[in-house]
Amino acid sequence: QVLLWLLKLVWSPLLHVSLLAMGVVLTRAEVVKGLEPLSAYDVAGVRILFRTFEDTCPTPALWERAFADLFPCFGGPEAAGRAFAALDTDTNGLIDGRETLAGLTLISKGHLSERMKLLFDIFDLNKEQELHFDECFLLLRRSMMGLRKMTGIVTPPEKVIHNMTKHIFKSATKHRNSAINLEDWFNWWSSDSSIRSALKMITWRPEDQRGLPTPDLQVNVDYTKGAADEGAFENMLGSKPQSAQASASAGDSSGQVIPVR
Questions:
Q1: For the segment 78-106, what is each residue's pLDDT rounded down to a tens digit?
Q2: Rounded to 5 degrees, what angle do the CA atoms 130, 179, 158 make?
Q3: Which residues contact 155 (CB under 8 A, 6 or more apart)?
Q4: What are phi and psi of 126, to 5 degrees?
Q5: Pick from 206, 186, 190: which is nearest to 198 by CA?
Q6: Please, are residues 43 and 256 in contact by the beta-carbon 8 Å criterion?
C-alpha cells in the first residue's frame, strides 16, 4: 500500500495530463477557501485590474497592502489578508502579480477566447503583440501556478510545460529564436485537445466556448513523452530559458520576481 501511495504521489501530475489528453474532465474548478470574492470577476474586470497593476505597481511582486489595494473585492484588510496568505504559499510576504492576474483570468467569467487573449497580453512583456519562447514558457508556467493556488488543480511537471512551449512554436512553424503572435497562440490552444479538456474545468457556460473548434477538429499531442526521464528532466532544468529561470517569482520558494524588460 505504501508503494502504491508513493507511485500515486510521483505520477499523479503525469496521469492528470494523460487523462486530459484523452478528453477526460477530472473535476470542475472551485476557488479555495478565502478567495471566493475573486470568482465574481468577469474577464473585462480582470483586464481593468491588469491595467491598474501596470500603471500603479512599481514592482512585479505584490505585498499585502498592494494586494488589498488592487483587489477591493475583499471589502477590508482582514479578508484581504486571509486571501493574501492563501496565495503566499512560500510565506515570504510577496506574491507574483502576473501569476495572480493570470490565475484570476482563467477562472473569470467570459468567453475563453477573451480570457486567453488577456493571458497573452499579461505576458507580452515588451508590448509588441508577440511572445518569445521564454515569455511563452512563462505564460504557461505562471498561469498554471496561479490557477493551482486559486483552485488546487494539479500543475504538470516543468518538462511537460516545456514540451508544450516547443510544440506551440513548432505548430506555428516558428523558430525558437523568433516569436509567436496572437493568431499563433489562438491556433494552438483552441485546437489542442489536452488544453481544451483542461479548459472545460473553468468553462462556466456553454457559450464560453461557442465558435471554437469542435473535438473532431482538435489535435491530440502527448506532452508527457520523456517527462518521466529524470536525467532529461534535470538537463532541461539546467538549460531552460534565462527568463524562465528568473521567473521563479514571488510565488516560489526562491523569492525572486519576474524581470520586466
A1: 999 999 999 999 999 999 999 999 999 99
A2: 100
A3: 13, 144, 145, 147, 148
A4: -95, 0
A5: 190
A6: no
* Cβ contact 192:163 at 8 Å: no
Per DSSP, what are the bridge partners of residue 179?
A: 132
Q: DSSP character for 240? A: S
Can you point out the beta strands (E) in the chain? 61-62, 95-96, 130-132, 179-181
Cβ burial, residue 39 (10 Å; 0-12/13-18/19+): middle
The CA distance from 203 to 234, in Å, is 35
Residue where the block lists cell 516558428: 174
Task: Tell me the chain's radius of gyration from C-alpha atoms.
Answer: 18
The residues with which 95 forms a beta bridge, in sequence order, are 62
Q: H helices of 192-227, where? A: 193-199
- Mind listing the pLDDT tens digit for each residue in 37-64? 999 999 999 999 999 999 999 899 999 9
The answer to whether 192 touches 221, Cβ cutoff 8 Å, is yes
Please tell me whether residue 130 adopts helix, strand or coil conformation: strand
Closest CA to 148 of 32, 16, 258, 235: 32
Q: pLDDT tens digit string along 96-133?
A: 999 999 999 999 999 999 999 999 999 999 999 999 99
Largest CA distance in the chain: 54
Name the E strands within 30-185.
61-62, 95-96, 130-132, 179-181
Using alpha carbons, select from 37, 32, 40 the residue that is nearest to residue 87. 32
Residue 91 burial (10 A CB sphere; 0-12, 13-18, 19+): exposed
